[in-house]
Amino acid sequence: MRNDIERVLIDEASIRNRLDEMVSEMDRDFPEGPIVVVILLKGALVFASDLLRRMERPLEIECLNVASYHGGTESSGTVDFLDRHFPEVRGRHVLLLDDILDTGRTLHAVANRLREEGAAKVLTAVLLAKNKSRAEAISADYTGFEIDDEFVVGYGLDYRGRYRNLPYVGILKAGVIG
Ligand code: IMP
Ligand code: MG
Predict the structure, then answer these.
(1) Could you give the CA distance from residue 122 to residue 98 in angstroms, rounded to a whole number?
(2) Ligand 2 mean position to 129 CA, how many Å?
């Protein structure tokens, strides 16, 4: 697996340090008391697991499966909710976690749905944000790292289902993609 990596973009120590900072920021912004953390599967699993273990506040965990279709023209992109049930968030403070902000469609759609379902407050956090113009004008409230607009894997992010368990974020060798 590691032989497929051209270069490490963000190493484990950098991720650890940044997660410490992000949790401090979150602790400052959320009022005391329990929150609901919504994890977008599968990409945000690793990020969420490391982030949440740094939090000392009471929290509940919910997971959501969504599919985003990027085919066709940019404007035709839609986000489908694949779960039978949507988490109960009425009146709750919600922290929404995703792996990466790319077009912004996923985070935009899920944050809107959480607000529609009556969440008192929705704050969003992503490990990575690609530096590009987005289909949806959205930025996360907390961004781990801004990266160039290139395809990355590791630390939860996959290429064709693989590489999620790499402990760092890296770029695949050109020969691996195709
Ligand atoms: P968005 O709706 O375009 O912002 O898409 C976000 C989703 O696309 C993420 O949750 C990832 O699953 C996937 N994605 C976007 N860029 C990458 C990448 O560079 N590597 C792996 N997955 C990516
Ligand atoms: Mg994915």
Answers:
(1) 13
(2) 14
For the full predicted model, state whether its pTM sits above 0.90: yes
| Helices and strands counted in the chain (H then E) | 3, 8
11 is catalytic: no
Among 121, 66, 123, 67, which Cα is nearest to 89's? Answer: 121
What domains, with CATH codes, occur in the chain? Answer: 12-148 (3.40.50.2020)
Q: What is the mean pLDDT of residues 23-47?
A: 95
Q: How far apart are CA 100 and CA 146, in angstroms?
A: 10
**DSSP labels for 97-122?**
EEEEESSSHHHHHHHHHHHHTT-SEE
Would you say the CB of residue 157 lies under 6 angstroms from ligand 1? yes
Q: Can you tell me the distance from the alpha carbon of 149 to that of 79, in angstroms, rounded to the nearest whole number?
A: 21
Q: What is the DSSP letter of 2?
A: G
Residue 60: which of 98, 107, 90, 94 has the closest Cα?
Answer: 94
161 pLDDT higher than 70 = yes
Q: What is the pLDDT of residues 142-155, one digit of tens each?
A: 999 999 999 999 99
Active-site residue, selected from the candidate residues 102, 141, 149, 158: 102
